[in-house]
Records
---
Amino acid sequence: MTRFLLRRTGSAVVLVLVLTAVVFVLQAVSPGDPVKAYLGNNASPAAIAAQRQALGLNDPLPVQYFHYIVHALQGNLGMSLRTRRPVMADLHDFLPATVELVAVAFVLALLLGSLYAVSGSLRWPGGAFFRGPLLVLATAPPFLLALGGIILFYAQLQVLPAAGRGVDSTGPSGFVLIDSILGGDATEFVAGVQHLVLPAVILSIAPSISIGRILRSSLDSTLASDYVRTARSKGLRPIVVLGKHVVRNSLGPGLSMAGLQLGFMFAGVVVVEQVFSWPGIGNYLAASIPTSDFPAIAGVTLVLGIIYIVANALVDVLQALADPRLNA
Amino acid sequence: MSADLTARRFGVPQVTIARFAGRRLNLALVGLLIVVTLVALFARVLAPDNPVQPIGALNLPLGSEGHLLGTDGIGRDILSRTLIGIQTSWFSALVVVASGLVIGGIIGVAAGVSGGWLDNLLMRLTDLFLALPGTLVAIALVAALGFGLQNTLIGIAIVWWPYYARIIRGEARAMAARPHVEAARLAGISRTRVVFRHILPGVVPTAIVTASLDIGNVVILLAGLSFLGLGQAAPAPELGADTARNLQQLLTQWWVPVVPGLAVLLLSLVANLGGDAIRNLLAGRR
């Protein structure tokens, strides 16, 4: 297991290095001028030259790359051309909202995906009435689902809010749900949940189908195996067969798919946050795109990319724990 | 990664009504793909009005006379804009899928046929791409390349091929081990000819199925990027961007932002059903 852990950590580190290299090269060729972010548009040529020297922009590219990594490790991702603030400070402000939304959506996707798989595999009566609509919804673009959700639940039924997180400012953790529990504020918690429902459900639908389908085919093949027939024929109750023999042996592919889906949720969250005015990193990215604010775009790509790489490494470790044959 | 996983990498699933249906329904669904392609091809002829010129009253509702899908906030015909948007979306998606097929096909076949160090090198590179969050990298790529539909397509194409390379490499490898290829080699046929006459034809069905199942994914992805402003510049009609630009009308004139989004749903549904049908037809043949 130790060897497996070391190897998996090693490959994750290599991936992060590759990602930083990609982002660095893109930043080097991008049209925006980082010097102007520091000095504004009216700086004198002498000041610009001095700042270029100070930022190390006259060094050879490999040296710049080395400095880029050192700075990134120190938490310095450069200045945003749009907000004129350090990108790291912006990310610090906007990341928690996104993490909260994606985490809730991810759990929802796992629940919906499991429901999809189990209801299909065990042929629950009426399961098709759940799976069919979910399938159709999952072929729609996320922004259309968001619009539909707002029209139905906000404008028509008036049961759910359509914008923001429900609180003006967050407490120490930056997560509405956690802060409201810590502060014992029930109304804030309810408001937080209400604001999360629509964006999180919309974000979870497409991934839930991908996870559900893989999980279902995996469940089906496990259910057809000899040891499950043995477990059944020795008189174990179906729920015990499922819990003790089937689920653990079927989880692997579903877990892998869940890890991959996280990448697509990061892409989807940018769109969903924009529709719901969610004060997160996705909205920040969406605002940075039209202004060609490359340091900000690079920072978002780097942070979300690293979360993605780490999450997938964790998934592999979880899989190896569930199935020791994998850590050879 | 298991074959299961590479087979369905995306959020967008296949709608599998067609799997249980007969050959006739499958053919009809493939026909639907052709109809959409024809509509996209002749969008400029079909569009009743100029898509960028204001031609009517502002915000006419659905079913208005002369403007079936109404008009937008500055009086442009929504049907015309949506038709041109369908053209852009559909052909862009086809271009991305074709680029994935060509680049991934060349790399996959090269790796699968040659084996050894080249196979190893190409597949490590492919895995590297697959392990990075492709859509995010594509957004960063486009932002660095500069805006415009062409750069968006280039950006996506750069992150799109690895999936094809993986699948086609596996298929080429399996083909290369078949007896008929061995026989061809023993008969002294040149390596190039073996690849083109004896391996490629065997890879084509899998490649076509993979590509046709992927069109829907690309349609959704492109619509999302266009929604974020990574598409054509302002007056040009584009489905995602038309939704994004008219978002503030959602609660007063809902059809203005919703109609282009419904067109994306339509394209993605047709692509998924058609892709499924192609798979079933090819599976039935073998």
---
Amino acid sequence: MSARQAGTGVFAPRPGAAPLPRMIAAQAGLETRLLLRNGEQLLLTMIIPAVLLLLFSTVDVVDTGPGEAVDFLAPGAVALAVMATAFTGQAIGTGFDRRYGVLKRLGASPLPRAGLMAAKAVAVLATIALQLVLLTAIALALGWSPRGGAAGALAVVLLVALGAAAFSGLGLLMAGTLRAEATLAAANLVFVLLLVAGGVLVPLEKFPDGARAVLEVLPVAALSDGLRDVLRDGGGVPWGDLGLLAGWAVLGLGLAARFFRWE
Amino acid sequence: MHQPSTDAAVQVTGLVKRYGEKTAVAGLDLTAARGEVTAVLGPNGAGKTTTVEVCEGYRRPDAGTVRVLGRDPRADAAELRPRVGVMLQSGGVYPTARAGEMLRHIARLHARPLDVVALVERLGLGSCGRTPYRRLSGGQQQRLALAMAVVGRPELVFLDEPTAGLDPQARHATWELIRELRADGVSVVLTTHHMDEAEQLSDRVVIIDGGRPVVDGTPEELCRGGAENTMRFTGRPGLDLGSLLKALPPETAALELSPGSYRISGEINPELLATVTTWCAQNGVLPDQMTVERRTLEDVFLELTGRELRS
């Protein structure tokens, strides 16, 4: 094509990246919207924890120990919800993002990888905030009376944030190394196993000592134990559980940063 | 055939890329000038996508140097990303994201994006702006990917098989957009295995096969050089071709293939055509079914590689 047609100027280059905070906000907004639009994700993150909280509080399925069942179950449901969003949902979602070339395409956009990760964290925290509102409302309606006061609220925020970081690291490690279908299967399997054996709905005291020692160091067990210490028992800051979660976060995020493959 | 230039949009020198045992690109040189459309043409598996993905910074070259807008695609990725638009061969969009939503999102990542509504209309995506990506047709997905590549107003776009799977109408709409990009000074590097696409759109064609450049030049140069072009006509049998040949340039040949069916081969240009028709008029012949056959890039490729372009 030798004849050069006159340009309209519409496509005249004016390149430039948006400011980083705006890019992160846009990416986080999109990821949150997509998550809330996805039926399976909603089932996993919102409906299952809420239904289990309702069911186990009103029907005497398991012996949750002394005191009101809801006082045991509400912190557990919160831990389950955090795991569902930050680990299971994120692993599956990111696994398929990778499979469909979304991560590849975004890698060519002005949004840096660190910005994408920050946006994912914001989307996870926004979803968790919605879950907390929903679960708190249900638990309060069931007669839950959380303890701990202002210091307890701060401890809860710390626990949830560190738990989300730990689960995110492990979820991203899985999403970034396995095939999307394998991630889907494995993440769901882990969710179901830990729903039963993660100290979420069934007290870990019900398990044999050997199994219990292993289960207690899992992030979901540490999170529900820490939340129970504060909200049911009115204990101080649960440093042991926080330390355990911090350890998982460092391990998970470190391994994910090292082994995550973008395509 | 390779002129290094400091101001090229893309400058690839001696590129080698291996995947395990397999060598995808084996010593490729390629220059794409700024403000031009450069087509990288070759059959499937020729190394087109690998070459483009090295330029996009996705892959690390095993040898050779690659400069995009004068920068290193990997070391200077942060600087290049806003300046370079990328259309992947497939995928790149959340399956549940709506077409308009995804395009708006990519626009938001840029400082001065195009008007999304106008772009959506321009590419005929207006009717499916609210359709999730996974329910778009293949052609709609392609057009969305193209829109995503240009919405940030880049200086350079890489389009990997931009018209694969498009119907003729959508294909021409895509060609028209690429012509407008060029007219506005955007550099375009596209891959294709459609010869007509390269001929129609590009200022420069680089034909590659087996990870090596076979030839490059303007479409006109490639079609002109080497083999001869032909013209054919029919008329009264037994014309005296000797008198015609005297009027034609020395390297031209004329032959009566079968009674009344004539073929002239050589460099067929307007002057030659005029000479032939004048000679026909002098001899009282009305040349019927007169056709001029120019060599196509398809013929060029076949001659250079001995193989047909698969699609």
